[in-house]
Design goal:
Layout: E1 4-9, H1 20-25, E2 30-34, H2 43-53, E3 59-64, H3 66-77, E4 82-88, H4 97-111, H5 115-126, H6 135-162, E5 177-182, H7 190-199, E6 204-208, H8 215-218, H9 220-232
Parallel strand pairs: 1-2, 1-3, 3-4, 4-5, 5-6
Helix pairs in contact: 2-3, 2-6, 4-5, 4-6, 5-6
Length: about 230
Amino acid sequence: MKKFSLVLIPGLLCDAQLWRPQIESLADIADIWIADHTRSDTMAGVARDVLADAPFASFALAGLSMGGYIALEIARQAPQRVARLGLLDTSARAELPEQTQRRMDFIALAGRGEFPQVTETLLPLLVHPSRVGQAALADVVRSMANNIGKEAFVRQEKAIISRADSLALLPAIGCPTMVLCGRQDALTPLALHQEIAAGIKGARLEVIEACGHLSTLEKPVEVNAALRRWLAA
């Protein structure tokens, strides 16, 4: 059976562990490659890095959170290479001034030698309230952040701040698109995903119940099923 070529992009302070349940579940239908999104400090530069590194000429592309911002920039730079697009727990909007200020505060915190505190501050916003106390999930979040490290985190935050508004791009996206979010995503709420889905012709909106921002880890069975539907579309 011919497999899909699938590029997955993690979010801010996340690595391949974010997609581990999907890597394991989708191995029968997809050749999966996880993008490195840590080297450049502009969104355009990160997208160019991924496009240069990707081992497939064309591919299904899915990103979560910051990964979604990167996926949209890739769709802007090289639409001919994106056969399918998956946007998970993300936004098509540019930064608001208050969001940029919060990122600058986190950069300053990391610069003062308090990088671990960034993760501890974000953790309650990353998962559904019922999972904040789940040690195994929190350990994965901390492990990913530790693997990314302070310097790459600063580059990632600067890249996110630099991202373009993608709302005007949405009508030009012509490939099969899935937009997915946790119902209780505190960082990128459902309304942002409804906006994306409305802007892309034929886009499918998937809402994962009782789920926060890190949907791939929180509700892997439901997310894996949605990804299978998207790949089969």
